[in-house]
Design a protein that fits this description.
137 residues; alpha+beta; 4-stranded antiparallel β-sheet
C-alpha cells in the first residue's frame, strides 16, 4: 500500500463542455513517477475533487501508460447529474463503475450452437426436437 502515498499529478487538456450530452469531457494526463500506474477509482476521486463533482458522476477510461512509465493518458467524462450518466454512458462502463448489473447470458459459442441445433428441426415443434433426432438415425 506504499504505492498509494506516492504523489500523483493530474493535468487536463482539450477540455470541452458538452451541453447536449450534459457533461464535461477532457483528456487527462496523469504524472505518476516511482509508480507503475494509478487506479481508475483513485483517478475518479481526484477528478471529482478537482471539478467539485460527485465521484459517482465521473467516468474515466482509455488509459495508456507511456513507454518508460511515469505518465499515463486517458479520457474523462464528468456528468452534470447521476441521471445523465445513466442515460448517456454505455452499459459496460456503468458496470465497471458499479452503477449497473452485468447481464448474465450464455457464452457466444453456446448461443450459436443452440441456434444451429434449432435450425435442424425447422418446420417441426421445437420441443419435440430431441425425440425426432433419435428417430432419424
Amino acid at each position: 500500500m506504499a504505492d498509494r502515498e506516492q504523489p500523483v499529478t493530474l493535468r487536463t487538456r482539450k477540455f470541452l463542455r458538452n451541453a447536449l450530452l450534459q457533461r464535461k469531457q477532457m483528456v487527462v494526463d496523469v504524472l505518476h513517477p516511482n509508480r507503475a500506474n494509478v487506479s481508475k477509482d483513485e483517478l475518479r476521486s481526484k477528478l471529482s475533487e478537482l471539478y467539485k463533482a460527485d465521484k459517482t458522476q465521473v467516468s474515466v477510461f482509455g488509459f495508456r501508460t507511456q513507454y518508460g512509465g511515469g505518465k499515463s493518458t486517458g479520457f474523462a467524462l464528468i456528468y452534470d447529474s447521476q441521471e445523465a450518466l445513466k442515460k448517456f454512458e454505455p452499459h459496460y462502463r456503468l458496470v465497471r463503475i458499479g452503477e449497473a448489473k452485468k447481464i448474465e447470458k450464455p457464452s457466444r459459442q453456446q448461443r450459436k450452437q443452440r441456434k444451429n441445433r434449432s435450425k435442424e428441426f425447422r418446420g417441426t415443434a421445437k420441443t419435440k426436437g430431441a425425440a425426432t433426432k433419435d428417430k432419424k438415425k
